[in-house]
Design a protein that fits this description.
The protein is α/β, with parallel strands linked by helices and 367 residues long. Helix content is 72%, strand content 7%. It starts with 5 loop residues before the first strand and ends with a helix.
């Protein structure tokens, strides 16, 4: 049982016949002698061995692998050990060399750019799918989800009146207070009315409303659709022949597009009321004078600018929220991640578009 491991090389048959004990303590110089074998070896005959352990099995497997030879003559237990050793034969990947700080920064920037491009591409595709769904509904008005759309009017618009009104009122007070402090240095406190009127009606009224709607309704859209995607409700809708774009996405987009101009105008009015209250208390400008001055210095084009931007902002917010909700996969954590992404994406796009509109309206003379 303790005979040293040995083999005989039958060059004519291309066979190595092993004998003895192929365990660690009895292998001795067997690896060296196997390495010196010359000629073609097609078969390893293991019938003569008494015992084999993991080291011996690995030695035989490695030789058979390198010479493309068959291993025969093992009993059931020996074959099981040999098969386990063979299955464990796979290369071990060395951990990558850590990148330097600068290279890692460049890699992260590159990944962010690629991800941004993919997201914009997907968003444009989703926008196109929404337009196709809208065209189908226009061609066949019976497909329009009236009750779903009216419900979204309440969620996006009516339920948001309180928080948007309070926010706009306070922002109007802040603008008036800060403007009065700065203009007092030049004895021009009366121009605080110009500042409040134009900046709330043209820019901040609709911009702050859009940001609030993105955080409130855009996140709700992403969370609702994400949960429905996770629970396979959207797949069930497709199974019964209901188009999710028409049933879920289009009512939300229509509600946001129609309600945002109204909310923006409402927010602008509340902002001017807040500024007028501050002017009355701090600058002794009575409300009637404030209103008369507003009519003199605020052109009607400022109202047009806000009303033109509002539907575009509403469409962007709704589409970004619905798109991210439809991208949810695998687990509940995705719902939170996609909801956060929807809000950040919507606010970013709103601010970018607002900058574009500011330049555009200045170029066309609406300044």
């Amino acid at each position: 049982m303790n005979a040293p491991a040995d083999f005989q090389h039958d060059a004519a048959e291309g066979t190595l016949r092993f004998s003895g004990n192929l365990s660690l303590r009895n292998i001795d110089d067997l690896p060296t002698r196997l390495g010196a074998v010359e000629g073609e070896v097609r078969r390893l005959d293991m019938r003569g061995i008494d015992r084999i352990d993991t080291v011996g099995a690995w030695l035989i497997h490695r030789f058979a692998r390198d010479h493309d030879a068959r291993v025969t003559g093992l009993d059931a237990n020996q074959q099981l050990l040999f098969d386990h050793v063979a299955q464990a034969d796979h290369p071990i990947e060395a951990p990558p060399k850590p990148m330097g700080a600068f290279a890692q920064l460049l890699a992260e920037i590159g990944e962010a750019v690629v991800q941004a491009i993919k997201t914009m591409y997907g968003l444009l595709g989703f926008m196109g799918a929404t337009a196709v769904a809208a065209a189908r509904v226009i061609a066949n008005p019976r497909r329009f989800r009236y009750h779903a759309t009216v419900h979204r009017f309440e969620v996006v618009g009516v339920s948001a009146l309180g928080i948007i009104g309070l926010m706009s009122f306070l922002i109007g007070i802040v603008i008036a207070q800060q403007g009065a402090v700065q203009l007092r240095q030049f004895g021009a406190e009366v121009f605080t009315i110009n500042l409040v009127g134009r900046i709330t009606l043209r820019e901040l009224g609709i911009l702050m409303t859009a940001i609030m709607v993105a955080g409130r309704s855009g996140s709700a859209f992403a969370a609702q659709l994400g949960t429905m995607k996770l629970t396979e409700e959207i797949d069930a809708m497709r199974t019964i022949g209901v188009n999710p774009m028409e049933a879920l996405v289009l009512p939300r987009v229509i509600a946001a597009v129609l309600m945002l101009p109204l909310l923006g105008f409402y927010a602008s009015l509340l902002g001017m009321i807040g500024g007028g209250l501050l002017c009355w208390i701090a600058l002794d400008i009575p409300p009637i004078t404030f209103v008369q001055r507003l009519r003199e210095v605020v052109p009607i084009t400022d109202l047009y600018v806000g009303l033109v931007k509002a539907p575009v902002f509403g469409a962007i917010i709704a589409i970004a929220g619905c798109y991210q909700g439809m991208q949810v996969e695998s687990d509940a954590e995705q719902v939170g991640l996609r909801t956060t992404t929807a809000v950040v994406q919507a606010i970013f796009l709103v601010i970018v578009l607002d900058a574009f509109f500011a330049v555009f309206f200045t170029e066309v003379g609406w300044n």
